[in-house]
Amino acid sequence: MKQSKQSSSLRVVAGVATQGHQVLVAQRQPDTQFISWWEFPGGKVEQGESDQQALAREWREEFGVDIQVGAPILETEFDYGDKVIVLCSFWCDIIDGTLALNQHQALYWSEPRRLDAGVFSAADRPLIETLRHHFDTESACTGAEKADAMIQASL
């Protein structure tokens, strides 16, 4: 979407932690904008921070864990009218600590295909589709590899 002249742009990062074929999502505390919506954990990039530094800081603040930020997944832009969100998502691994609900009301591990995009903010929805495609493709490859191994074993 194009940025309008009245809108201010805000860079936001999101981390996608995985456990098998599941991703971690968090339910926000109720507020005036995103009433109890689900999200991929992350937050605003502060001045002077890299995307990776911001993501690590946000996970430490929100969940009390240290993460290793991996490869970028997707960058999307969504115009909410009063502001434009540029959402940059990254794969991440939890490397230290136990997840705590410091700023959210719930955490949930889910297969991306089971996520209801309607309970996520509009900026998160393209990421859900990307993750569904990624895990569907990964599952298909894994299935094919298993079939090849079964064929090889029977020869």
From TrEMBL:
Keyword Metal-binding: yes
InterPro entries: MutT-like (IPR047127), Nudix_hydrolase (IPR020476), NUDIX_hydrolase-like_dom_sf (IPR015797), NUDIX_hydrolase_dom (IPR000086)
Keywords assigned by UniProt, alphabetized: DNA damage, DNA repair, DNA replication, Hydrolase, Magnesium, Metal-binding, Mutator protein
Cofactor(s) listed: Mg(2+)
Gene3D superfamilies reported for this sequence: Nucleoside Triphosphate Pyrophosphohydrolase
PROSITE patterns, per database record: NUDIX
Biological process, per Gene Ontology: DNA repair; DNA replication
Catalytic activity: 8-oxo-GTP + H2O = 8-oxo-GMP + diphosphate + H(+); 8-oxo-dGTP + H2O = 8-oxo-dGMP + diphosphate + H(+)
Gene Ontology terms for molecular function: 8-oxo-7,8-dihydrodeoxyguanosine triphosphate pyrophosphatase activity; 8-oxo-7,8-dihydroguanosine triphosphate pyrophosphatase activity; 8-oxo-dGDP phosphatase activity; 8-oxo-GDP phosphatase activity; metal ion binding
Keyword Hydrolase attributed: yes
Nudix hydrolase domain span: 8-135
EC number: 3.6.1.55
Family: Belongs to the Nudix hydrolase family.
Protein name as annotated: 8-oxo-dGTP diphosphatase
Originating species: Salinivibrio kushneri
Organism placement in taxonomy: Bacteria, Pseudomonadati, Pseudomonadota, Gammaproteobacteria, Vibrionales
